[in-house]
Every structure is written in structure tokens, then in C-alpha cells.
Amino acid sequence: MSLTRTGTENTPHTPEPTPLSRIGHSTPLVGVPAAVIASLAYNDAPVPLVIPAVRETNRALYSKLAECPDARSAGQIFQDYMDVVFGLARPDEPACGACRRFRASYLRLLKGWAFDASNPEGAVLKGWVESRFGLFPTWHKAALTRFSSPQWIAYVEEKMAPRFHNNAVHAQLDLLYSFCQWRLEHFPLLPPPARHLRLYRGVNDLTEHPLVQRIDKRTAQLRLNNLSSFSADRDRAGEFGDCILEAEVPLTKILFFNDLLPKHMLKGEGEYLVIGGDYRVRTSWL
Questions:
Q1: Least confident of 39-43, 89-93, 172-176, 184-188
Q2: Fewest CB within a 10 Å sphere: which of 8, 88, 210, 217?
Q3: Beta-carbon-side half-sphere exposure of residue 141 (alpha carbons within 13 Å)
Q4: Which sequence spans correspond to the domains of the chain?
Q5: β-strand pairing of 254-257 with 211-214
């Protein structure tokens, strides 16, 4: 296994900026520059990331959530609300004739991610992060090193696939992130004033995570994909790779976690979906 360093200078044969030398777009929707969101400084002292108008346009949901006695009932209310607003058939209910056409949904995207984060569903999720938080992905089937590369073009084609872009799927993901942040605020995973969660990621090939800076023998600053999977259980993370990356993840960068919803396809993995950027990670081997 080896660590690769991100390049910041262009060669005569590569005049084009790369996704690794430009961390992201200059104008994300959350009001915080992508370079700040991706920085170690942000991870050390996170501030809330708010997608505009999500709570304001879904007042009925948040009014109902305010009455919830526990986290599980809140998750059920959220899923019921999504079923009604976006016409999503529940997995345990037969679809009526009017619902048989394909409807893009956040649950289908999570299910696809569970099988392969580099499939079209994964591209849509990474594209949503790119749109809302401004962060470019660094990996989708292969390293994304150039905007005009075949790998980048394939990613763009998959993230824009019309199959997954009906039914306001980005608005669904906006609600999922906003609900996740509401849940972490009202039913915290750790006692306040905790703002971070120690998470683990198992990998076999560190070239997927370019090295920005070597801090010491076991600690490095790595650039993670704009959406990455983690686990709160080190042993579970070890099932996915011999090298374990340990990171202190800001709660504001969590899109989804195992206990957020009562029904979803990631239950067995205990998975956390984490918004990426540069992270200070400690590496260890099984």
C-alpha cells in the first residue's frame, strides 16, 4: 500500500486544473466556502451547515418532529412524511397501478450505495454533495484527476442519469441531511457539548485517499472522497480493509447513520455517510 501526494502545479502537458488541486466550487449552497468545509480548521471547529429553505418549506414536518418523545418515532414520522410528499411506496406495501413507474428516492440511492458506492446511485449522491457543499469527488470507479478525463466524464454521465433525477431527488436528499442534523441536535449520539464522533474506515488501497501532508509516522492529512463510508465500530471497519483510518468527524458532516431511520438497506453495516474533504487521520493495521 502506498500514499500518493496531491499535485498543485500544472505541467506543460496538463494545463487544466484538476479536481485535487481545486477542492471544489466557489459558491456552495450552504454559505460556507468549499475550501473551508474541506479544511482541517473546519473539522477542528465546525459550524452548522444549513441548506437554505429546507425547514421553512417543510414546516409541517418539523412541527410534528417537535412533538416526538424519542428518536425512533422521529425517524418514523420522517419516513411517513417522505412517503406522502414524494409518493414513495413503502417496501412492505404493494405498489398500486399509479405507482409502478420508477420513482427516484433517497432510499433507492442508499440501497445502491450499500451494494457499490461507485455505481450510478453513488454518483448521484456524490453529485448532490458537489451541488450543495461544493466539494468535488476524488474517486468514482477510478481516481478523478482531470475534468476532461474519461473517468470524470463517466462520473458526470452517471450523476446526471435521468433515471435517478425525477421526483425531486435532490430535494429528498436536502431533507435527509436536514433531518439528520435535527436528529443529532435533539437526540444526540454523545452527551453535549460534543461536536465530533470518532469513526473508522477500513481500506485496502490507500491510493484512493490522496496524501496532502504526512504529520508523523501514524498520522496524516488525507483528502477523502466528497462522500465516504465510515463505521463507529473499529472491528466492523476492519471487515472492509486491513488498514484502518481513524478520524474525528464533525457531526455537521454526517449525512446518514445506522439508527437515523427505522427502515433502510444499510442496517446490517452500521454505516455512517460522511461528507469529505481533508481529514487528519490516524492509520493502523489489523
A1: 89-93
A2: 217
A3: 14
A4: 34-285
A5: unpaired
Site of grid cell 433507492: 108
CB atoms within 10 A of CB 145: 18
Angle, alpha carbons 184-230-190 (nearest 5°): 30
- How many of the other CB atoms lie within 10 Å of CB of 181? 20
143: Cα within 13 Å, side-chain hemisphere: 14
Q: Check pLDDT > 80 for residue 163.
A: yes
- Write down the pLDDT at residue 212: 93
Cell numbers linked to 46? 465546525
State pLDDT tens for residues 64-91: 999 999 999 999 999 999 999 999 865 4
For the record, the C-alpha cell of 48 comes out as 452548522
Q: For 119, which DSSP code?
A: S
* Identity at 122, one-letter amino acid code: G
One-letter identity of residue 184: L
- Count the neighbouring beta carbons within 10 Å of the beta carbon of residue 187: 14
- Read off the pLDDT of residues 238-276 as tens digits, 9 standing for 90 and up: 998 999 999 999 999 999 999 999 987 666 667 999 999
Cα(21)–Cα(7) distance, rounded to whole angstroms?
6
Find, among 39, 208, 53, 44, the residue nearest to 135 by Cα: 39
Q: Which residue has the higher pLDDT, 3 or 104?
A: 104
Q: Where are the alpha helices (DSSP H) in the chain?
A: 34-37, 40-44, 59-65, 71-86, 106-115, 120-133, 150-159, 169-186, 234-237
Q: Which residues contact 100 (CB under 8 A, 6 or more apart)?
A: none
The letter for the amino acid at 258 is: N
Cβ 103 vs Cβ 4: under 8 Å: no
